[in-house]
Amino acid sequence: MLAEIITIGDEILIGQIVDTNSAWMARELNAIGIRIKQISSVSDDREHILKALAEAKQRADIILITGGLGPTKDDITKKTLADYFGVGFVENQEALDNVTRIFAKYNRPLLEVNRQQAQVPANCEVLNNQNGTAPGMWFNHEGKIYVSMPGVPHEMMYMVEQQVIPKLKATFKLPVIIHKTLLTVGEGESFLAERIADIEDSLPPYIKLAYLPKLGQVRLRLSGYADDETTLQAEIDEFATQLTQRLGSIIAAEEDIALEKAIMNKLEQSGETLSLAESCTGGYLAHLFTQHAGSSAVFLGGAVSYAYSLKESMLSVAHDTLTKYGAVSEETATEMVQGALLNFKSTYAIAITGIAGPGGGTDDKPVGTVWIGVAGKGKMVVKKFTFGNKRQQNIERSAITALGMLNTLISAE
Amino acid sequence: MLAEIITIGDEILIGQIVDTNSAWMARELNAIGIRIKQISSVSDDREHILKALAEAKQRADIILITGGLGPTKDDITKKTLADYFGVGFVENQEALDNVTRIFAKYNRPLLEVNRQQAQVPANCEVLNNQNGTAPGMWFNHEGKIYVSMPGVPHEMMYMVEQQVIPKLKATFKLPVIIHKTLLTVGEGESFLAERIADIEDSLPPYIKLAYLPKLGQVRLRLSGYADDETTLQAEIDEFATQLTQRLGSIIAAEEDIALEKAIMNKLEQSGETLSLAESCTGGYLAHLFTQHAGSSAVFLGGAVSYAYSLKESMLSVAHDTLTKYGAVSEETATEMVQGALLNFKSTYAIAITGIAGPGGGTDDKPVGTVWIGVAGKGKMVVKKFTFGNKRQQNIERSAITALGMLNTLISAE
Known about the structure:
Two copies of one chain form a homodimer.
Chain A: E1 2-8, H1 10-13, H2 21-31, E2 35-42, H3 46-59, E3 62-66, H4 77-85, E4 89-91, H5 93-105, H6 112-115, E5 119-121, E6 125-127, E7 136-141, E8 144-149, H7 153-171, E9 176-185, H8 189-195, H9 197-201, E10 207-214, E11 217-226, H10 229-247, E12 251-253, H11 259-269, E13 274-278, H12 284-290, E14 299-305, H13 308-315, H14 319-325, H15 330-344, E15 348-354, E16 369-376, E17 379-386, H16 391-411
Parallel strand pairs in A: 1-2, 1-3, 3-8, 13-14, 13-15
Antiparallel strand pairs in A: 4-5, 6-7, 7-8, 9-11, 9-12, 10-11, 15-16, 16-17
């Protein structure tokens, strides 16, 4: 069963927003055995939308459409869909009740543009929007399913989970797709490929292996497509075991999770804790940990110490160390990681101090110079790195590199 | 001048990664007057890639392709492009030197799969990859430009900035596109539309107004397309001024910047500073501030205080307050924001404590309960919010809401 996603809105095409909806929908659909054939982002333009719909229906059975359902003049999706299906508009009572309820809740008068949100193409089945005023719309037309949803992520997500997925399951007999991902740390894509070439060659045609590299990590993903779930799962598991045995300690997780989550899982099992001392990563590493549910079992917290004074007060870095060696130095990184261990009383700690850029670089400490320390249980490693000149990348690389160092420190014990 | 972006790779279609490359490329191209007609994500499948190329060339003059250039077997872009153009392969000396240099730098032996990365379609002009082993490729075929680049973001970004943009400028006479964005805070999309309806109606056909809503903020974006830059800029500025005068204090910035950046700009002008006390947002708010270059001029740092003990040690929250009222309470939020002001010696501070979920909720404090405090210069506001049950959304909403509260507190003075 194939689906396509069409996102409508100039804001994606001029790069003002990143399309995170499509990846989320793709994951949800894959989980119920629907493959995404193509994702297309098109402009708020009638002819272009019509063309995209016509092309998508040639390739797929299900077409998910997001965006362009707001009350303002640049939102033309609904009108275009009515033209595409050749139908007129009707007022939907449930949608009108919903928009009325929302405006009453916030004590706002209902404007005519809001009332018009209850007007829907005559051939659609309305999907109630729990989190907003624009209704979703489900169309069954010439054997294809079209679903139009708002582009606001939490409105779309709730609608997909509560309504679209159940209706798709009820409409189609869905095949089985199984993915199994192994997270490797510290080896490049081509070296991995060389080490597992014979296993890759032995895969049957309905199981594919993909390499997904990302800053110091490579995910190996086995994807299988078949009718019988039990047999396919057993085959995928067998190949995953072969890969795990071959690659040994560079496997950080045998599931598709982030490296920081893999680390927290290990620490939680052993009842150990973690704290942070962040300077140039400025809270990014803390956010990586705390985005995961249940992180409070392992993660105690940390200091985001941009200013010298906060390095001293929160992390007990000596004033002399900062003035003598500077904030970006082995000595400061060492005192930061030790200060975190001592002050926050965690089993492990990470400290990061560097020059993220674009300003602040000097001849001997150029932008991208980062000192990272990891410590715990009597062990400590402090290393210097020289990343590039892009701020966001320096922040991300520093964080990922620190995670790799902590993972190694923990695994070595 | 129209361009399309085609991203190749199953990892996008199964939702394993979010496509951030396209938005970045779209911004870069828009800035030099090239509009993106469509962004398509397609699978690592020969026929599908060929179809996507054929469709894109019908609509656009420039086709940017990313992904599928790695050394492993699932990477088929290069072979497919050679088939598309009907040419064979040649070894490119510059690309071979580059891959050899990189492997020598890391003291790794050059594998056959890596050497093959220097094999390119005979009709291409190689774009040297400063940050990786896969060369970029520039094709000029039947009046259309095709550019194939690696999908790894920093490899692609460097290539676009250093080589693709200059070559596009040299190849085409580019028209003018001007965008002007106003950031509004605290009013819904439909109310904004009602208040500025007459201004919107008076726009000429070559200037469009878009509403871009996002959790408590709406960006108003004027986009103009013309041949004469000076005239268009004057017109856009005139309409922007009309909008700004009409909307008054709900305008947080007259440029396309994030709310936290608008706040930092104000504080920097007045020589004031900011610190944070984050619990449930776990470093996310600190990251929002510190992702911006120059944030250290305003942002001193903050505490990420997940554990009770860290709320006490870093923020001087009284132990009795935590045990009597709990971590998620008006009393704790108040002591957190006051503790941040006092301990970190900043002009303003923000404190956030809540239950991000999915666990940790109780009957009287369900998941999504968040207390936010903002304070500075003798003023303080502490408010309770009840968000939803999704962790990531609760984190984002808490942060954005806190920014809105601080913006109001600062603007009120």
